[in-house]
Amino acid sequence: MALIPVYGRFVGDFTAHLVAVDTEDTIDEVASKIAVHAIGRRLPEEPLAKGLEVSSGGRTLAPTSRLKDWSPQPLQWLDVRWKW
Amino acid sequence: MPLAPRGAPKNLEGTTTDGGRQRGMLLDRDDWYDIAHDLDWSLTYVPHETAFPDAWSGSKDIPRHAWDAWEEPYRVSYRDYVAVQREKESGVAGVRDALKRARVYERLVPSVAAVSHLHMGATCMVEQMAVMMLGRSARFAPSPRWRNISVFGMLDEIRHAQLDLLFSHDLLKYESRFDWCQKAFHTNEWGIIAIRSFCDDWLLNANCVDSALAVHLTFEHGFTNLQFIALAAGAMEAGDVEFSNLLSSIQTDEARHAQQGFPTLEILMKHDPQRAQRVLDVSFWRSFRLFQAITGTSMDYYTPLSKRTMSFKEFMLEWIVDQHERTLRDYGLKRPWYWETFLQSLEHGHHALHLGMWFWRPTLFWKPSAGVSKAERRWLNDKYPQWEDSWGVLWDQIIKNVNDGKLAQTLPQTLPALCNLTQLPIGTHWDRHHIECVTSEYRGRTYHFDSEVSKWCFELEPERYAGHLNVVDRFIAGMIQPADLNGVLQWMGLTADVMGDDAGNYGWAADYVPHAQFAG
Q1: Do B472 and A75 touch (CB under 8 A)?
Q2: A66 has which bridge partners?
Q3: Partner-chain residue, chosen from B397, B425, B448, that has the shortest CB–CB distance to A44
Q4: How far apart are CA B336 and CA B285, in angstroms?
Q5: Pairing relation of β-strands A3-10 and A17-22?
Q6: How distant, in Å, are the alpha carbons of B294, B366, B371 from that of B300?
Q7: Distance (Å, whole) CA B493 – CA B361
Q8: Contacts of A40 in chain B (CB under 8 A)
Q9: SS3 annotation, B486-501
Q10: Domains of chain A, residue spans
Q11: Of A6, A19, A21, A42, which to mutate for an interface test with B (greatest number of B Cβ within 10 Å)?
Q12: Which residues pair with B224 in a beta bridge?
């Protein structure tokens, strides 16, 4: 278990945020920690979306995998978007 | 040097001797100027390079004799300078006294007052840093004429810093935010760090040649017209007569001494044109990004709608872009390689910065006006046809939160990602559809940038920037304690009496309340 700072951007928002995540977090949990800074603040909720997905460097990260499985680096850029 | 005047002697008031006036013996300036401005030394105790080290002077590979051709763009003697500046000072003092009696400041709407809070905090110490920059030129510039003219530039900048402090000191009794005129540059407020970063690089830590190109030619001659003329016009329209008068008076000095960049450019174009192109291109981008934050927001969001004479983009295109392109053409330079990106940034960047600054408003020392009432939004869409898709969507959620009473959702819980060059939020060089994750690795450290342009600036001279930590870097390094937003606000020096909030107290959001709410 280790806290790591990442840059999390919700696609459609105008900036990324500094987000503290844990290497033991699932990707779904990471997605939620990033989304909270954009959804309901500058972007609307999407009740019809099927959830969130996370990508980094062009790769989509498996939602139930853990962040540590992807060898995260400090201030790594993660993109979160709605899953349809 | 002849003791008797050539030509008709001028009868000027001068120093008195034996209690009487000296008459008819003073020379015309042009009679002695060509001798005086070439005052120089043939050094014998030390080599020239010891007295004029290249790290300060910046001559590099330009041969020494090339600087003989440096011709100052205007001629002024100390006597002339004092006479003219004295008149200007009388004018400013007269307006100041009249407006104090009229209590103009007390009648300003909050968004207009905010423009002067932002301006004073953001620019006063830049003027002071310019004193040091010109002091360096007065001593180390590679031409004696340049050294001479720099002394007058120093005096100008002393005047500017002191005028800002005087203006702000007068108004402290109404508004404690004016304390930030002097205080700002001694804090870690993030916007001030962005300005200070540029000034540290180009005013305090650049040699004379580079600072002439980056500051006189680009920042001063290119951009300060934005803040000091366009904004001054808006301020005058909006009733902030004293602020407008102050800016106009300052700009008369600036327009003069900013011309100092041109003779330096002429010599660079003969001997090292690539260096000139590079310095201009870096400083144009970095200056532009700062003016987007300071002037773009003030012109397009804080100035009351009925008082806006031009949009930020319109003014930039007419006064800065046109002027800069002409300069480039006249001197044989090319447009910067990033010109298309610059034009996109002109369309969007200040809207991004405004949204970010409003959202992160507790981190400001002034109160930003949201500037998105329905009428203002129509104006924004008229001037910037893509505004609704790029920014309106985001503001709609904010407006909904305000009207639902969810103010906490309109405030941040963390820091935005920040550029390691401009210190500005990543995503603010364009719009939300064009955010890039731009990085560069240097000596084992990863640097983040708001754009490929900022990355390019960094990679040209990484050693200049490599040791700097932006606010996010300092936060994750544990330098800001407690490590939360309150800790950040404290670290930035923001006290409850200056911390930003919406200038209109959210009343503008009522524009969007559905009419059905009022149905009987």
Answers
A1: yes
A2: A26
A3: B397
A4: 9
A5: antiparallel
A6: 11, 16, 8
A7: 14
A8: 397, 401, 409
A9: HHHHHHCCCCCCCCCC
A10: 3-83
A11: A42
A12: none
Between A5, A16, A43, which is nearest B427 by CB?
A16
CB pair distance less than 8 Å for A36 and B415? no
Whether residue B206 contacts residue B223, with contact meaning beta carbons closer than 8 Å, is answered with no
Could you give the ipTM of this predicted complex?
0.98
B78-512 fold: Ribonucleotide Reductase, subunit A (1.10.620)
Nearest CA in chain B to A19: B414
Mean pLDDT, to the nearest integer, of B333-359? 97
Please state the φ and ψ torsions of residue B238, each to the nearest 5 degrees: -85, 0
Query: Which residues of B are less than 8 Å from A15 in CB distance?
Result: 352, 356, 416-417, 425-428, 435
What DSSP string describes B398-427? HHHHHHTT-GGGGS-SSPBPB-TTT-SBTT
Spatial contact of B268 and B276, defined as CB atoms under 8 Å apart: yes
Confidence of residue B319 (pLDDT cuts 50, 70, 90): confident
**Paired sense of beta strands A51-56 and B445-449, if any:** unpaired
User: What tokens were used for B376?
Assistant: 């203002």
Cβ contacts of B332 within 8 Å, gap of 6 or more: B269, B273
Considering only CB atoms, A14 lies closest to which of B355, B409, B414, namely B355
Residues of B with CB under 8 A from a CB of A: 352, 355-356, 359, 391, 393-394, 396-398, 400-401, 409-410, 412-417, 425-428, 431-432, 435, 437, 439, 446, 448, 472, 475-476
The token pair that represents B475 in the structure block: 């936060």
Q: How far is B396 from chain A (nearest CA, A)?
A: 8
Are the CB atoms for B115 and B302 separated by under 8 Å?
A: yes
Mean pLDDT of A61-81: 96
* Closest residue in chain B to residue A13, using alpha carbons only: B432
A71: left (phi over 0), alpha (psi -120 to 50) or beta: left
Query: What length is written for chain A?
Result: 84
Residue B356: its chain A contacts at CB < 8 A? 14-15
* B239-268 tens-digit pLDDT: 888 888 888 889 989 888 888 899 999 999
CA distance B271 to B64: 11
Q: A3-83, superfamily in CATH?
A: TmoB-like (3.10.20.270)
CA B391: distance to chain centroid? 26
